[in-house]
Amino acid sequence: MAKVMTICRAATRAISQGVAFGPFAPCTQKMHLLSSSRSFLGSVCGSRKLQSPPERRISDTRFNAPLSAEEVARPVGVCTMMRLPYQESAEGLNAAFIGVPLDTGTSNRPGARFGPRHIRAESSMVRTYNATTRAAPYNSLVVADIGDVHVNLYNLKDSCRRIREAYQKEGLLDCKRVVQIGIRGSSYSPEPYKFCREQGFRVVFAEDCWSKSLVPLMSEVRQQMGDKPVYLSFDIDGIDPSFAPGTGTPEIGGLTTHQALEIIRGSRGLNLVGCDLVEVAPMYDLSGNTALTAANLLFEMLCVLPGVQSY
User: Fold this and answer.
1) Model confidence pLDDT, tens digit, residues 225-283
2) Are strands 95-99 and 143-148 parallel, antiparallel or unpaired?
3) Where does 189-287 have alpha helices with state H?
4) Which of 20, 122, 284, 286, CA to CA, is 20 to 30 A from 189?
5) At what angle do helices 215-225 and 257-265 cross, to 10 degrees?
6) Cα(201)–Cα(193) distance, rounded to whole angstroms?
7) Is residue 149's pLDDT more than 80?
8) How confident is the model over 212-222, as a mean pLDDT?
């Protein structure tokens, strides 16, 4: 297991720190606003008084906003997702970022437990508006970083229990509405995808995606999903390791980063109830590009949530 970072929305109850939520349950819509993220920086250092940083909100609105590097340098401040405010519960939010730093049950290389921390660090490069799709998530939704699920690194079963308790489960998969994109690699049996097909999953091999746009495919996916609830899960090793080597089980011949963008942007208009991105293992990519890619894809997921308006 190597859950990394989740965006959740529209749950029915507030979540306290240490009792998080994830794939089957997005966050609550009732809550007060964070008034600011001011810290101890108003104290005196020698004879010079330090200035408090700007509030992490859009001025004169009810929405939170990331700190802008035009006003506060990227290395400054507490590291949160997208430089958003941190709060200890999802109360009052329309969407929230939450990490699940666990890799105890990984089948190959460990290291994804450090994924959420590194994704948060690289997310300081992500800005407020999506200049291509013209999505303005922070003008549309109240968003914050609510920390991590308190996993138990010494006991996988206990960690699974904590995650189950943290996530609100809303039902099992609708197997006729499951699509797997970018599947590839060698196998231990002649028919490795027999089970998926027997369940009714649609399996799209990576080879069927090579050298083409995935916009037509996503049009088919939207039609298949209809207006029922949809959960989007993105495994970073779906992307070719030449783009994202920092993962536990790299497989050559994967998707490109622009195809990853097409998949996520092609999910706009779906009844998305939550999203996640998994398997970032930062130590296998010293450049930080895998975590940076993950941060950008999570921003793109935020941009396609229902209720996000364009500017």
Assistant:
1) 999 999 999 999 999 999 999 999 999 999 999 999 999 999 999 999 999 999 999 99
2) parallel
3) 194-199, 215-225, 257-265
4) 284
5) 30
6) 9
7) yes
8) 98
Q: Which residues are CB-contacts of 244 (< 8 A; sequence separation ≥ 6)?
A: 236, 237, 257, 285, 289, 290, 293, 294
Residues 6+ apart with CB under 8 A from 66: 56, 82, 83, 84, 126, 127, 128, 138
120: enclosing H helix or E strand: helix 115-122
Amino acid at 289: N
Q: How far apart are CA 198 and CA 95, in angstroms?
A: 35
Helices 115-122 & 289-303 angle (0-180, nearest 10)? 80
Provide the pLDDT confidence category of residue 61 given band limits of 50, 70 and 90.
low
Amino acid at 302: L
Helix 257-265 crosses helix 289-303 at what angle (to 10 degrees)? 20
Q: Are 280 and 246 in contact (CB under 8 A)?
A: yes
How many angstroms separate the Cα of 221 from the Cα of each of 59, 233, 270?
A: 39, 14, 10
- The tens digit of pLDDT for each residue in 4-60 reads 567 776 443 333 333 333 333 333 332 222 222 222 222 223 333 434 445 555 434
Instruction: Give the pair of three-digit tokens for residue 152.
Output: 């138990």
